[in-house]
Amino acid sequence: DTAVSQTPKYLVTQMGNDKSIKCEQNLGHDTMYWYKQDSKKFLKIMFSYNNKELIINETVPNRFSPKSPDKAHLNLHINSLELGDSAVYFCASSQGGLAAQETQYFGPGTRLLVL
Amino acid sequence: RKEVEQDPGPFNVPEGATVAFNCTYSNSASQSFFWYRQDCRKEPKLLMSVYSSGNEDGRFTAQLNRASQYISLLIRDSKLSDSATYLCAVSLNTGNQFYFGTGTSLTVIP
User: Fold this and answer.
1) Can you spell out the DSSP letters for chain B?
2) Is B49 within 8 Å of chain A by CB?
3) Which residue, A17, B34, B68, B72, shows the most beta carbons closer than 10 Å to its own?
4) How far apart are CA A96 and CA B44, in angstroms?
5) Which of B31, B32, B96 sits opposite A31 (nearest CB)?
6) How far apart are alpha carbons B85 and B9 in whole angstroms?
7) Which residue in chain A is spatially nearest to B47 when comparing CA positions?
């Protein structure tokens, strides 16, 4: 069974559209994350959720809205997509609240291309 | 200034070679340190955590130098399967602030 799964794997869409990426983890972890990896391979944290509560937002535009219906799921909704949103989006999870000290397990990534 | 800086490489080394990567971090309050490996078009996976006293896992050795604010990864007896991008990561242990470097690309050549 996949520990951290994301759907879709690939997403090609037009500028201005709204899209969502889903993430699920079956590890029983309390903390989940969204990362963006751009074309230069720079991996940057966007959001972190611990037990369904947002605990970090690294200056991400408010067009990006994470939603966590339960601690096993963290979805990412993006409004009014822009060309610069094209990237690979990784979901990750870690066991407890102090994820800084813990291994993060990444999903396979969602490759988003905005045309 | 980026929180974490890495030499992007690429490093091209022959099989059996020893190769070392360094990674510098800007915030002296950083508490936890890691090396991740990312294969092409795959997700990052933890290679090893980096402890203050340094630690070794088989052919891989990680070191931390707090005074100079860098961490290093040494790979001995390189294998073809070591070809990947190696990402360092540091955290502040507060608010789950976690920062990755841009990664160092390694290709091991037969």
Assistant:
1) --SEEE----EEEETT--EEEEEEES-TT--EEEEEEE-TTS-EEEEEEE-TT-EEETTEEEEEETTTTEEEEEE-S--GGG-EEEEEEEE-SSTT-EEE---EEEEEE-
2) yes
3) B34
4) 19
5) B96
6) 9
7) A103
Q: How confident is the model at residue B98 (pLDDT cuts 50, 70, 90)?
A: confident
**pLDDT tens per residue across span A39-55:** 888 898 898 888 667 86
Reported residue count of chain A is 115
Cross-chain Cβ contact A41/B91 below 8 Å: no
Please state, in angstroms and rounded to a whole number, the distance separating the CA atoms of residues B47 and B26: 22
Nearest to A90 among B32, B43, B103 (CB): B43
Say whether pLDDT at B59 is over 70. Answer: yes
Does B100 lie at the interface with A, CB-CB under 8 angstroms? Answer: yes
d(CA A72, CA A25): 5
Query: What residues in A contact B97, CB-CB < 8 Å?
Result: 45, 56, 100
> Which of B33, B34, B12, B23 is CA-nearest to residue B82?
B12
Q: Which has the closest alpha carbon to B4: B32, B39, B38, B46?
A: B32
Please count the other Cβ atoms lying within 10 Å of the Cβ belonging to residue B99.
Answer: 21
By the CB < 8 Å criterion, does A56 face chain B? Answer: yes
Which phi and psi angles does A89 have, rounded to 5°? -105, 125
Q: Which amino acid, one-letter code, is at B25?
A: Y
Q: In terms of CA atoms, which chain B residue is nearest residue A43?
A: B100
